[in-house]
Design a protein that fits this description.
The chain is built from three helices and four strands; from the N terminus they run βαββααβ. It is α+β, with helices and mostly antiparallel strands. The chain is globular and about 35 Å long.
Length: 94
Amino acid sequence: MLYAILCHDKAASSHIRAENRPLHLEYLKANNDNIHAAGPLMGDDEQSMVGSLLIMNYESKAEAETFAAGDPYAKAGLFESVTITPWKQVIPAL
């Protein structure tokens, strides 16, 4: 099942994101087999990163929650909110 993990950064937390980005990218590489799509949410200026959107493939929501909790960004306290929602891809068809 695909899960959309939507993370919004805390205000004025760009330093936390920058400091933890290398560890976050290593974490994603280690979980590459489960990634359907991933990338940062961009601010209105189209330059600043303000959150993350990951579409992950897991057998259960509990597995998606475990993945999200293990993200170095989450461990560093970057996110104001994280939601995990089952997601169904319709277009393009799989």
